Amino acid sequence: MNKVYATCTISGLIRLTEQAPDEGQFALAVGELEVVRRVIRETAEPTPAPRGSIASRVPGVVDGAEDRANLGAIARYIQLLGERDVPGFRALGV
């Protein structure tokens, strides 16, 4: 199975992709699709998305907050993910 990255931007919206993070994106975790999806669903905040769906957002990230505050929330979230001892999942940036 291919590895999948969980990434976000400063807005905190989490995206799962097979592509390595680009400039302006923060790498949160990498692993097997189903495992990464489950861990993100268990730890992230649900947020409304287009077409009535639900997206995942880094806990503590606030629209309109200073980048520094949102960066702190992203760093704390990566630390939280680093505490998860799940086969097929690894937090990045810790």
Structure keywords:
94 residues, alpha+beta, two-stranded antiparallel sheet, 2 helices
User: Judging from the principal axes of the Cα atoms, what is the shape?
Assistant: globular
The total of helices stands at 2
Low-confidence sequence ranges: none
> What profile does the largest beta sheet have?
4 strands, antiparallel
Cross-sheet strand order for the largest sheet = 2-1-3-6
How does this structure look, described?
It is built from 2 helices and 6 strands, in the order βββαββαβ. The protein has helices at 33-43, 67-82, and strands at residues 3-8, 14-17, 26-32, 45-48, 54-57, 89-91. With 94 residues, it is of the alpha+beta class.
Could you outline the blueprint of secondary structure elements for this entry?
Elements: E1 3-8, E2 14-17, E3 26-32, H1 33-43, E4 45-48, E5 54-57, H2 67-82, E6 89-91
Antiparallel strand pairs: 1-2, 1-3, 3-6, 4-5
Concise synopsis of the structure shown:
This protein is an alpha+beta fold and 94 residues long. The protein has helices at 33-43, 67-82; strands at 3-8, 14-17, 26-32, 45-48, 54-57, 89-91.
